[in-house]
Design brief:
By secondary structure, this protein is α+β, with helices and mostly antiparallel strands. It contains 13 helices and 48 strands.
Length: 885
């Protein structure tokens, strides 16, 4: 994945997000340092190397012919990096990978490895490292935060742990390796990794994108060494309890203390939080571990008046605290650990209609988010993560859903800092939900996996819920097991049995729905539907369908000879199961906008349709708050270059769907309702707004005003308010425009919106709906009038302002034509003819201008991302000839 740089300006001081569990040495010298073992590894298939683990884990072992890699890296990821395999993202290259000769590139996830696949064998990872000598008697701990799926672990010719015990993608491991290490000399570490079997709860990609032929086998998270004295401190946690008015908080600080010696130990556990220092004596028998708590009943200082609460970023400031635990034996410090936490309360309840409603610190929150996808091969980039999270906030969304693929700690540390809610849980459609096939160690692995994930996620204030299932709730015995673990570990948030509306055997109603759709539907669907994905309740995954990348992005992964017309190479980059083409989307495009005559024509129509579709979905859920309580767009991003289910493409280029979402989710928003031809205002802030003014103007396709209406309103806090019904003017063209504006009492523009509509309505064929994935249409709206818009002349003024690495380009566009300039699309490139500049943060894009209208937009970016080039402005549009500035 290309390296990216991102300015502090765009990620709101993300340089501070790694507080708490530091990724570097503690500046105070009081916390243990992690020694990462990420460099200079080699990998090889056990089919190719016949040496034993004892031999491979010996210093000086001859690894000639092995593949070099750094970790974390899956096997296929490492082989792609060293170009043993070609770029899997381009064209159909992935088909050439060994073991990819099965009929369905997605169903493979639920199959055993094909005969002859080199990934039926285990693969060896090995490295050598030197530890400094003379550090005294220390306990050395070897940590693995993620191995997929089973592993035998060897150090210096000794087996540390067996694959029967090291099993599970979402497990984390810590081993006392003191007796195996040789300070001052070369040490060899070897890990024999095996892929998950058919019924092992590992990583699969369902129907999102292909599953790699190794099933993402390998060491996919960090590996490091730490050290401690005879007593280790682990799993620091701060439970917070707020009073009914949210003005006082009680903290309970806890941690596990572990005596690794065979002798009894007496010592003192110290706690420090927000300037409060506490201590208590602790006695441990040889080999004993116990959880020790500092509770407010015994330590009155843990009762805080007026604490700094953690809020999602749209509701307030995501304030964080840090707690430190340390254990002293006599005058010697044995170990220490710290945790960053937030003081906040998340609750959920079922409304009168049975919909799950979440509250943060007593305030209702309408969940509006999208689902996360890491890279297909789990290649990691902190800069890419920064861009992803900055895009979430730029689109005004408040939530990310994780269906499995529970990422590195860095992900959650950054969402904590940024105030982005996270909705994690297990995945669907694979071994995680094939409970009847759990005949081996799957039950034990699932329990241990949940224990490890709850232990780390409970400390993160951004994580507000846990889902024990996805498409289906677990059966009674598994759900009981899960709930008991969550209770034991004091999970501080709501638990939902699954992402679907099915009742669970133990916990009952989920209060959420997973009814789709996942294919194209017209904008009216979200307000017209009352039985499936429409704007009511909490829809945990849904989408208006495919999202076609811009031409510039398509050219990066579709070979030139396959760019047009749409063919099997395009389809290879669609989804799996029912989503192997973009045919439904293209048919809707053809019926509403007219057949595409070229790739460029298809592109402009696709971006308009995606903008319209995403805007309509999020607007509908906003209008119906709190009859609607949440919606998760399926999805936020893609694991590889794809034609479906994203709000920005694999190359971080935002297109129509991005800006439709950004518009719909703006904090104070004026919008049109497709079901009743009305105009309303959604106030997403928690303050009332008095005396706002709403105006609406209707224009024929030739930009002639046909009708108007306006009104003054008072908006309640966190509200949705109808302003008025629109008039139905005489003589309106079949395709027409609607312009909305919202101004405050002083006349300042708060929100504007521009719709392209048809006098011929879209009509859904409810009787022909076979399932909720897709609802067919009886009749299609006619937007073909857009094809006859005359070429618009746009006057452009560009100014560039740079301050250090923070650059802002201001673009003033003025329509000098007598007709509408439709879907004006400015973009910045790295020099003339260069690639799109990413990540980039436009204040608005794909906007339309009436005759004589002038609009100013800004684009923010990191100057370093120019790579020495000059930013070139390219202005395009539906009926705007591309120009460079």
């Amino acid at each position: 994945m290309p390296r990216l740089r991102l300015s502090i300006l765009f990620v709101l001081a993300l340089s501070t997000v790694l507080g708490g569990r530091s990724y570097a040495a503690d500046p105070s010298g009081e916390l243990p340092t992690r020694t990462y073992l990420h460099k200079n590894w080699q990998i090889q298939s056990s089919c190719e190397v016949k040496a034993t683990g004892e031999q491979i884990s010996s210093a000086g072992f001859d690894a000639k012919g092995w593949h070099k890699t750094d970790i974390p890296a899956t096997v296929v990821g490492a082989l792609v990096t060293v170009k043993t395999y070609p770029d899997p993202n381009y064209g159909t290259n992935l088909k050439s990978f060994p073991g990819m000769n099965y009929s369905d590139k997605h169903l493979f996830a639920n199959q055993d490895m094909p005969e002859g696949s080199s990934f039926r064998c285990s693969w060896w990872y090995r490295t050598e490292f030197t530890l400094p000598a003379g550090e005294g008697k220390k306990t050395r701990w070897l940590n693995f935060l993620g191995i997929n799926y089973r592993a035998n672990i060897w150090i210096n010719g000794h087996k540390v742990e067996d694959a029967n015990d090291v099993a599970g993608t979402y497990r984390s491991y810590e081993f006392d390796v003191s007796k195996f290490l040789r300070p001052g000399k070369a040490n060899a570490l070897a890990v024999e990794v095996s892929a998950p079997g058919k019924y092992d709860p590992g990583i699969t990609w369902v129907d999102w994108n292909p599953t790699p032929p190794d099933k993402d086998m390998g060491i996919w998270k960090e590996v490091f060494l730490t050290s401690s004295g005879n007593v280790a401190v682990r799993h620091p946690f701060v439970a917070t309890k707020l009073d009914a008015e949210y003005t006082t908080a009680e903290l309970t600080v806890s941690g596990e203390v572990r005596n690794v010696s065979n002798e009894p130990v007496k010592g003192v556990l110290r706690a420090e939080v927000d300037g409060i220092e506490l201590q208590q004596p602790v006695e441990l028998n040889g080999g004993e571990s116990k959880v020790v708590k500092f509770a407010p009943e015994q330590f009155a200082k843990l009762k805080l008046a007026h604490p700094r609460l953690w809020w999602p970023y749209q509701m307030g400031t995501p304030n964080l605290y840090t707690a430190k635990l340390s254990f002293d034996i006599g005058k010697q410090a044995s170990d220490a650990a710290s945790v960053t936490f937030g003081i906040r309360e998340v609750t959920s309840e079922l409304t009168e209609k049975g919909h799950r409603l979440f509250k943060v610190n007593g305030k209702k929150v309408l969940i509006r988010g999208a689902a996360w996808a890491p890279d297909l091969l789990f290649r990691w980039s902190s800069e890419k993560l920064d861009a992803d999270l900055a895009y979430v906030r730029d689109m005004n969304m408040n939530t990310i859903r994780l269906e499995g693929r529970l990422d590195r700690d860095e992900f959650f540390e950054k969402t904590d800092r940024l105030g982005i809610l996270v909705m994690p849980g297990w995945t669907c459609c694979d071994a995680w939900e094939k409970w009847k096939s759990w005949t081996g160690d799957q039950n034990r692995v699932a329990a241990a996996s949940l224990r490890d994930q709850i232990t780390r996620l409970r400390t993160h204030p951004s994580v507000f819920v846990w889902l024990n299932g996805s498409d289906n709730p677990p059966p009674a015995d598994v759900e009981t097991m899960y709930l008991s673990i969550e209770k034991e570990l004091e999970w501080p948030n709501p638990v939902v049995s699954s992402a679907s509306e099915q009742n669970a055997a133990v916990s009952g109603e989920s209060g959420v729905k997973m009814t789709g759709p996942y294919e194209y539907v017209p904008p009216v669907y979200w307000l017209a539907d009352t039985r499936a994905g429409g704007a009511y309740g909490y829809n945990t995954e849904t989408s208006p369908g495919p999202a076609i990348p811009t031409r510039q992005s398509l050219e990066k992964f579709i070979p030139k000879e396959h760019l047009w017309p749409i063919d099997e190479v395009w389809n290879y980059h669609a989804g799996g199961e029912r989503f192997t083409t973009v045919n439904v989307f293209t048919d809707g495009l053809t019926r509403r906008y007219g057949p595409a005559s070229s790739l460029d024509d298809y592109e402009r129509k696709a971006q308009a349709m995606t903008y319209d579709g995403e805007r309509a979905m999020f607007e509908a859920y906003g209008r119906n708050k709190y009859t609607s309580t949440g919606v998760i767009q399926w999805m936020l991003n893609n694991a590889w270059p794809s034609l479906i289910w994203h709000l920005y493409d694999y190359y971080l280029v935002p297109a129509g769907g991005y800006f439709g979402t950004k518009k719909a989710c703006e904090p104070v928003h004026v919008q049109y309702s497709y079901d009743d031809n009305s105009v309303g205002v959604v106030n997403g802030t928690y303050e009332a707004l008095k005396g706002v003014k709403v105006s609406a103007k209707i224009y024929s396709i030739d930009a002639k005003e046909k009708a108007s209406r306006d009104a003054a309103l008072d908006l309640g806090a966190d509200s949705s308010t109808k302003a008025f019904d629109l008039p139905k003017p005489e003589g309106l063209t079949q395709t027409y425009f609607l312009k909305l504006e919202l101004r405050d009492a002083a006349g300042k523009l708060l929100s504007d919106n521009f719709y392209w509509l048809s006098t011929k309505p879209d009509e859904l064929d409810w009787d022909q709906r076979k399932d909720t994935v897709y609802t067919p249409q009886k009749e299609f709206g006619d937007l073909t009038g857009l094809n006859n818009l005359p070429t618009a002349k746009i006057a452009i003024t560009k100014t560039v302002r740079a301050s250090g690495r923070n650059s802002v380009v201001t673009v003033i566009a003025e329509n000098k034509s007598s007709g509408v300039a439709f879907m004006v699309h400015p973009r910045l490139t790295r020099g003339k003819g260069g690639e799109d500049l990413t990540p980039i943060f436009w204040s608005d894009n794909y906007f339309s201008l009436l005759p004589g209208e002038k609009k100013s937009v800004t684009a923010r970016f990191d100057s370093a991302s120019l790579q020495g080039a000059t930013p070139e402005l390219v202005v395009e549009g539906w009926n705007v000839e591309p120009t460079e500035h």
